[in-house]
Design a protein that fits this description.
By secondary structure, this protein is mainly α. It has one domain: Orthogonal Bundle (Farnesyl Diphosphate Synthase). It is flat and about 50 Å long. About 3% of the residues have low confidence. InterPro entries: Isoprenoid_synthase_dom_sf, Polyprenyl_synt.
Length: 247
């Protein structure tokens, strides 16, 4: 392992952490294959999104952490290094023979927006009402899921209309993924969802959360139906992603 070994080990552990899922890179690959893109063309971007997500989780952890100062310093350094590595993945490893340079530039722009001040970095930490927590969910995992779907469509060669539908679909399933995660966590731990003011359930309660689930499903399904009309069975992976979130 390259010097400094401690930093590179921390980066590797963060990305390969088994507690994080692969929802985002799967969404990227499915969106790329939908529009006929080659598998090899999207892998660098899918990896970049996974890396950027790992970095954002590290920063999330530090916002709530009471860890020792040395640990916090390493976490911050690791997050910063991972964000840079994500962009390096896109620029250095995307096959130039498969993906035009202007598309790579668009992917970098989308990733920048997803992790920047209008995305993950701009989320609010103090939540007092439904509007604010939905805004936060959209800027958190929603922005990353939107980026994943859009980048897949761009790399695969999708047109503006298709990419626009993927953008809406990605945002809807991204927020839905978070809401369902909270509901399942509540069911598993049998906790009272109205007692935690920093979660969706703590702010709006379980009944309103279930209503939001249905609203988000409808938004995602509407875009997916239009994509299926054009691409048929190629949209099945995206359909499976949505169906999996309903369980």
């Amino acid at each position: 392992m390259r010097y400094p070994e401690t930093l590179h080990q921390s980066m590797q552990n963060s990305v390969l952490n088994l507690s994080t899922d692969h929802f985002l890179p799967i969404l990227s690959v499915a969106s790329c294959e939908l529009v006929g893109g080659e598998h090899a063309s999207i892998i660098p971007t899918a990896c970049a999104i996974k890396i950027a997500h790992a970095a954002s989780l590290l920063h999330d952890e530090q916002l709530l952490s009471h860890s020792s100062i040395p640990y916090q310093r390493m976490a911050v350094l690791t997050g910063e290094a991972l964000f840079i590595r994500a962009f390096e993945c896109v620029v250095s490893f995307t096959p130039p023979g498969l993906v035009p340079e202007f598309i790579i530039q668009q992917v970098v722009t989308e990733l920048s927006k997803a992790v920047g001040s209008t995305g993950v970095a701009g989320r609010q930490s103090l939540i007092s009402c439904e509007k604010e927590i939905i805004w936060m969910l959209r800027r958190k995992f929603g922005a990353m899921a939107e980026c994943s779907a859009v980048c897949g469509g761009l790399v695969g060669g999708g047109g503006e209309d298709v990419v626009g539908r993927l953008r809406k679909y990605g945002m809807a399933v991204g927020v839905l993924h978070q809401v369902m995660g909270e509901i399942l966590l509540m069911e598993d731990s049998e906790m009272d969802g109205n007692n935690n003011g920093v979660t969706l359930l703590g702010v709006v309660g379980i009944e309103r959360a279930m209503e939001l689930v249905e609203e988000l499903k409808s938004k995602a399904t509407r875009e997916l139906d239009m994509l299926e009309e054009k691409y048929g069975e190629k949209a099945m992976p995206l359909r499976c992603i949505l169906l999996d979130l309903r369980t």
